[in-house]
Write a structure and sequence with these properties.
Layout (H helix, E strand, L loop, with lengths): L2 H18 L3 H15 L2 H13 L10 H12 L4 H14 L3 H16 L3 H13 L2 H13 L6 H10 L8 H13 L3
Helix pairs in contact: 1-2, 1-3, 2-3, 3-4, 3-5, 4-5, 5-6, 6-7, 6-8, 9-10
Length: 183
């Protein structure tokens, strides 16, 4: 782990210490600042987990869309923990094979970026798939693997979302971002 990465983890630890001391607004503000201004994807990952699950102890209500938004911010920037947690949360809430396939994609990316936890989750998913679905999932990942295909992948994902899907609102917000992003 390089010094820059260590410093980013130390910054997140400082924010968590504030949260643990009951200084919720200060801790959240610091995490949001680290995420937005410093591109600290450890901070965005922590915020993503915090908001997708909520915390009674910290008096933070679950905000699934906001949490996924923070996780996606780290995931698209190759942060393996963000990719792992995004994939895991999407898989846990999946209501269709298409949603599991998108979760699988993020888990495979997490594994390629060094997440050991992702490998076990990928195996769990693969054990539930028949041969045809496994082949489809594998092809999907291979097809969308490069960053240049990211815009195509996300546009495909956006076009396949059902307005009743809990990801719909999040993806509407991100569609605008990705269509304007230079890749």
């Amino acid at each position: 782990m390089n010094n820059q990465n260590i410093n980013k983890l130390i910054e997140v630890r400082e924010a968590i210490n504030l949260l643990d001391k009951g200084k919720i607004n200060e801790g959240l503000s610091l995490l949001e600042s680290l995420c937005e201004n410093n591109r600290n994807y450890h901070a965005s990952c922590y915020l993503g987990i915090l908001y997708t699950s909520g915390s009674e102890k910290k008096n933070i209500k679950e905000d699934y869309t906001r949490g996924l938004s923070y996780l996606l911010k780290g995931a698209i920037n190759h942060h393996s923990d963000s990719q792992f947690f995004l994939g895991s949360i999407l898989e846990a809430r999946a209501k269709s094979k298409h949603q599991v396939k998108n979760a699988y994609l993020w888990l495979v990316r997490a594994k390629k970026n060094g997440s050991e936890k992702a490998e076990n989750k990928i195996k769990e998913i693969e054990e539930t798939l028949d041969e045809a679905h496994l082949k489809e999932f594998t092809y999907y990942v291979e097809e969308l693997e490069s960053i240049k295909d990211e815009k195509k992948y996300l546009n495909q994902l956006f076009s396949n979302l059902n307005p009743d899907d809990d990801m719909y609102e999040l993806m509407k917000k991100w569609k605008e971002y990705f269509n304007n992003k230079r890749i």
